[in-house]
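Expect chain and fold; thus:
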Amino acid sequence: MTTVFKKLGPGLLFAGAAIGVSHLVQSTRAGADFGLGLIWALILVNLVKYPFFQFGPRYALATGESLLEGYRRMSKGVLVIYYILNLGTMFTIQAAVTAVTAGIAARLLGIDSTAWTSVVVALLCFAVLWRGKYSWLDKSMKIIVLALSISTLIAVVFAFGTKPDLTLTQVLPITSSEWIFLIAFMGWMPGPLDISIWHSLWTLEKKKMNPKTTLKSSLFDFNIGYGVTLVLGLCFVVLGATVMFGSDVSFSASGATFAGQLIGLYTSVMGSGWFVIIAIAALTTMISTTLTTLDASPRVMAHTTTLLNGKYANNQLTWMLILTVGTCLIFLFFAAEMGLLVQIATVLSFLTAPFYAAANLALVTGKHMPVKHRPKKWLRVASLLGILFLIGFSITYLTVLF
C-alpha cells in the first residue's frame, strides 16, 4: 500500500485542481435544483473528456516533454494563442477559487468574509508554495484529497438517511435558464481541458523526483485521480439532492456566500455536530483547488515564456508573485466586476475546449509520439466522437447564451 501511495502524485494534483467550484458549487446546485436527475450529464461529460485529459500524462511520459513543447512543434502561433488565453483568464480563475476558499474558512472560524479575508488566503497559499514548492504540494495533496474523500463520503452516507424517497429518474432541462445551467455544469466538469497541460508538466516534475516512473504507473495515477473527481462529483450531487432539493432556499450567485449557505443547510439537516466534518470537506475541496491553480498557472506561463523566447527562464516564482498580486488587486479594486470576469473566463473555457481536444489528439497520434505508446483504436474513435460533442456543445452554448 505504501508503494502504491508513493506512485500517486500528478493524478491527485489533477483531482485537486478539478475538484473545486465545479464540484462544491455546480454539482451541489445540480442536486439542489434537479435532485438526482442530472447524474447522466455528470457521467457523460466525464467520459467525453477522459481521453483528452489522459493524453497529458501519456504524451509527457512517452516523449519526455510537456504538451507545451508539443504545441510548439505544431506551430509557434498555437503557443502564442495559449499564452494569451491563459494570461487573460488565470487571474479571474485564481480570484474565484480563492474567494470561495476564504468564504468557507471565514465560516469555519466564525468571522465575516471580506475582501481582506481573501487577500490573506491568497498570501498564505503563496507562502506555502514558495517555501515548499512542488515536492510539498505532491505530498500534501495526497493528505488533502484523502481527507476530502473521507469527510465527503461520511456526509453522503449520513445525508442519504434524511431523504430516502429520492429517485434516480433522469431529466432534461426545460427552460432556457435550466439549459444555461446544464451547459455551465457540463462545461466545468470535471474541469477545463487546459488542465491537461498542467498535468503534463506535473508528470515531468514527478519523473524528476522518481526516475523510475513509467507510462503504466503514470496512467494508473491519472486514473485514480480521475476516478476520485467522478466519485466526488456524484457525492456532491447526492448531497445537494438530499439536503437542498425542494428546500425553497434562494441561493446566492456569490460562490463564497453559496458555500456558507451550503454548510448551514447541511448542519440544519444533519445537526450542528456535523459542522466540522462538513466544513472540513468543503474547505479541503477549495484549498486543494487554490493551491494547485496557484502552482499550475505560473508553471505553464514560465514554461511557455521559455519556449517562446528560445532560452531557459527560471521565472516560475516571479509568475506566482504576479498572479498573487493580481488576484489581491481584483479583490481590493474590482470585486464588483467579478461576475463579468468569471463569465468571460467561462466562455473562453467552453470555446477553447475543442481546440485543446483536437491538439492533444493530434500530438498523441503524431509522428513524434512513439508508436507503442499511442492510444488504442477505441480511444482514438472515442476522441473523435468527443471532439464532435465538444464542438456541438460550444455551438449550443453560444446559441442559448445569445
Observations:
- Confidence is low (pLDDT under 50) at residues 1-5.
- The longest helix spans residues 115-160.
- The radius of gyration is 20 Å.
- The chain has one domain: 2-401.
